[in-house]
Every structure is written in C-alpha cells, then in structure tokens.
Amino acid sequence: MTVTEIKTRPIRFKLRLLSALRAILDLVTSFFFKLYYGTEGKKLPAITDDILKQPATEVARKIRTKQITSVDVVEACIRRIKDINPIVNCFVENRFELALQEAKKADEIIRSGTKTVEQLLQEKPFLGVPFTTKDCVAVKDLHQTAGVVLRKDYIAEEDAEVIKLLRENGAIIIGLTNVPELCMWWETYNNIHGRTSNPYNTTRIVGGSSGGEGCIQAAAGSCFGIGSDIGGSIRMPAYFNGIFGHKPSRKAVSNHGQYPTSATEMQGDFLCIGPMTKYAVDLKPILKIISGENCKKLNLDKPVDIGKIKIFHQFSNNAPMASKVDPEIITAMEKVVEYFKLKYKITSEEKKIELLERSSPIWFATMKSNIPFGSYIIKDYTYCSIFREIIKSLLGLSGNTLIGLFTALVDYEVVDLGSEKYKHYRRLRDNLEDIFKEMLGDDGIFIYPAHPTPAPYHNQPLMRPMNFMYTAIINSLGFPATTIPLGLSSEGLPIGIQVIANHNNDSLCLAVAEELEKAFGGWIEP
Fold first, then answer.
1. Strands 310-313, 349-350: parallel, antiparallel or unpaired by DSSP?
2. In degrees, to the nearest 5, what angle opens at C-alpha 212 toward C-alphas 219 and 163?
3. At how many degrees (to 10) do helices 420-440 and 359-367 cross?
4. First to last CA, the chain
5. CA angle in degrees (0–180, nearest 5) for 510-161-228
6. Would you list the domain boundaries of the chain?
7. What is the CATH number of domain 52-360+420-520?
8. CB neighbours (10 Å) of residue 96?
C-alpha cells in the first residue's frame, strides 16, 4: 500500500460513512413523509381543448393559416388556468384582458392579408401564441416580487429583454407563475402566493425556482414558458413536471430585467434564462428569439447528425451529502444508452469524474458575493434580525420562509473574493470545466441525472438539501443543458435526464432532446 493510499483511507471511510448515514436518513424520512401525505393527491381535470396539447410552433402555424384564431387559443389557456389553479396554485397574476386585446389585433393582422403566411413566419413566428413566465422576470405593469414579501407591491416598469423579444415576435404574455422566496430554493413556496403542487401528484413538489412555470406547462395552461436557472431552476422543475427545459450556454441570453440581479461576474455566468416546453421541437425556435444577437454564435441552424455524435454518461456524482440515484432513473439512463447503441451504433463511454464529488463546495464557494442573500429579504439585516424572524416563522408570523431564513443565516458571512479559499474552489471549478471541454469537444454530449430522485413530498427537500447539485454544478461550468422526460416512475411521477454539451453547442442538446422525445414519448398528460 502506498503512502497516498494510507493517507486517503480515513477520508474515504468518512465519505462512505456519510453516504451510509445519508441513505438511512432518506429511508427513515421517506417513510414518515409517506405516512403523513399518503400516496395520492387531488386529481387535475382532463385537458379538453385539443389545441393545448399541441406544440407551440404548431399552434402558431394554425393561427397563421387561419385554422384557429389567437383569441381561441388565449381563451383556451384562460379556461385551463381557471380549472387547474385552485388545485396546483401555479399561476399568480394575470393580464387576461390585455392578452385578449392583443390576440384580437393578431387575428386582425392575419385576416387583413397584408402579410403572406411565409412573411408572418419569418417576421413574427409566434404571432398570437400565449405564453407565461416566472415571477422574477419583469413584465411591464405586472408585479415582480420574486416571492419576497418586501417586494409584494413592486410593479415592473418595463419588460425584461427576453419578454420584449418574444413580444416583438408576436407572442402574447398572459401572466406570471409562482417561485420560491427570492428564487433561491428548489421547492416553490413563498409567503405571498403560497405553495405550488405537482400536477402528477399534488402531495409532491414542482421544484424551483421556476416551479410554477414547470407546473403550468405540464398541466397545459399556456403554450410555452420562460424560466431562469442559477442552480437548476429550469431543469429541476422541468424534470419534476415531465417537460423539456433548456439552460443555455453562459451569457447566450440576456439577464436584463430579472430579479435579483447578479452580484458578481461569476454569478452572472451562472445565471441564465431559457425556454420550458411540453415539446422538444419548441425549444430551438424560442431560443433563437430570446438569444437575440447571440443566436449567431450558437449555430442553431447548423444541422446535427445524431449518428456522428460522441456520447458519455455518468450515473451518479457520488457526493456523500446527496441521495443515491433512484434505480428507475439509472434504468432509464441505461435505456437511452442502449437506444443509441442499437439505432446508431454509438457506444456511450461511462465516466467517473471524481471532481463531481466536490460539486457542492465548488458551487457554493463560487456563488458567494459581497451581498449576502438575507439582505434581499430582511429589513435591518443582522444576526439578531435573522434569529428573530426564524422564531416568528416557526409561529407563523414572519413574512419569510423558514428555508429562506436558514439560507440567510448560512450566507451571513461576506466572502473575500481574494481569499485563498475562494481561489482554491475557483481553480477546482476551472479544472472541472477543462475536463468537460476536453471530453465533449465539438461533437460530444454528456448524459447525467437531472436529480437523484423523482419529485419528493412537500417539505422533503429540507431533508435532502444537496440534491440540487446535479444541476447546479453545470451552472458553475457554464455549459448548455437540456432536461428530457423519459416517462413515469412506478409511482406515476416523471423521470428523465439532462443532456450537456460544450459551450455554445446548444444545438446538440436540442437535437438529442428531439431524438429522445420520438423514442420515449416525451411529455405525458397528468
């Protein structure tokens, strides 16, 4: 035995012990959560308007060709939202009247015949198509609370850049969807709008922070949605709700108009806005619009030959504080690997990237800034005020959520961005990025769990706080990643994967999403 092996044995033993304790904790707490919540929740009514079951691009085509009116589609969304929202609480503010007025104008443009169908496709590809966005992306004259009680009366004065671009391309914003407090947790709950429930089983979470958006897409309340992602906030809700969600390459989409804003350049690299859809085919046209001038560097029109891509996969990050990956998720990944082998003769290479075990400290350290989390949610931000609010929260008297306050407590200490500790984790992050870049090249994809389990019960993330690291580490590295649904678990909950490509190779992720949608069925109506 070498000296290195002797030195690392105690460390490996501690890691194995932590993993064992993690597994026991999951087993015990799952039993009690199941006992408390039961196995079934409230059922959603069936989708009665067939147009809501179709891709947004197909809805746009039918509106352009006068097979259906924009008013018909907006009214269908309104009916659906009114049907589902009392059950799942995903939708928090509407602009229905204005949306109907805009829909009438869209229909008038089409009826006038001043533009050909082809001209409309080129100039306003989503003319008359209704969409929604999460309540942290600014929509003019609507609230922009980000789930923070201190901002409950804040009204946005202008559209966020992505909303502006979509409206210029004919899309109609119909309202806002729910988020966690300050969008910094992976269950959607706040003390303004309450908790959002999973449409497949209302005892389960929808994820966060774009949880309301993931829910409304799965339940077919709008034709497509816009989410944002700093640690998995698009991909986890997409995964938990059985839809597609794409986190674009770093800085490919403008963050202008999103709250909270990035406090450091590194946070700005982590944070991004992207599309959430029921159908993979909608991801690319939406991304082409919201990426604006950056669309050119993403090469979205460049054809992708699936038969010539390289595939890599890893079943787990092996982090001791994360739950073990559910066997059904591993089976789903194996089926994807087998699919590519049988259809395209591509053998996926299994990887064991050891640095992924350090996902949590890398993400947390490099996410730090000189503006603490709590300063956004608490007046007179001090240790005393945090503890006071925690006591009030336990008594049901605080405007803050308990997880928000605990996060504020942990984040109280301002980081020194010039410290050796910060530099150390920055180097680890850079090393991990280099490993991925070398592996992926120009034609490689990495198949990886989007989350280690199907959607947990409400409040269960408190027992599994580090599980979001499967998505968060990809934010740290800046790569594009797409969540792809792969059917339902034995409990009837969505499961799937995320597919990751090299910087600005978003088209690879999107092409694989379309391929796997055809092979495995994609979105399933709740």
1. parallel
2. 100
3. 120
4. 55
5. 50
6. 52-360+420-520
7. 3.90.1300.10
8. 16
SS (H, E, C) 428-448: HHHHHHHHHHHHHCCCEEEEE
- Mean pLDDT calculated for residue range 176-194: 97
CA distances from 348 to 311, 318, 447, 508, 510 (A): 5, 20, 9, 15, 18
Q: Is the peptide bond before 456 cis (omega within 30 degrees of 0)?
A: no
Can you read off the two tokens belonging to residue 124? 């306003």
Burial class of 3 by CB neighbour count within 10 A (0 to 12, 13 to 18, 19+): exposed
Catalytic residue, chosen from 210, 233, 254, 291, is: 233
pLDDT digits (tens, 9 = 90+) for 99-143: 999 999 999 999 999 999 999 999 999 999 999 999 999 999 999
| 191 contact partners, CB below 8 Å, separation of at least 6 | 149, 181, 398, 399, 400, 401
The residue whose two tokens read 């993690």 is 22
Please list the residues that pair with 227 across neighbouring strands.
274
Amino acid at 85: N
249: annotated active-site residue: no
Q: What is the pTM of this model?
A: 0.96
The closest alpha carbon to 198, from 113, 87, 114, belongs to 87
The predicted-structure confidence for 473-484, as pLDDT tens digits, reads as follows 999 999 999 999
User: Which of 90-99, 149-158, 193-202, 297-306 is predicted least confidently?
Assistant: 297-306
User: Is 490 one of the annotated active-site residues of the chain?
Assistant: no
Which of the following is catalytic: 134, 164, 247, 278? 134
The predicted-structure confidence for 22-53, as pLDDT tens digits, reads as follows: 889 899 999 999 999 988 899 999 999 999 99
- Residue matched to tokens 């089976």: 331
CA torsion, points 106, 110, 114, 120, in degrees to nearest 10? 80
Written as one letter, the residue type at 506 is: D
Judge whether 502 and 479 are in contact, CB under 8 Å.
yes
E strands, 309-348, are 310-313
Tokens of 213: 């958006």
Structure tokens at 63: 């509106």
Measured between alpha carbons, how far is 92 from 207 in angstroms, rounded to an integer? Answer: 16
Amino acid at residue number 9: R
352 a catalytic residue: no
In the 8-state DSSP scheme, what is residue 181?
G
| 20 contacts 14 by C-beta, under 8 angstroms | no
pLDDT of the residue at 9: 57
| Per annotation, catalytic residue among 70, 209, 359, 476 | 209
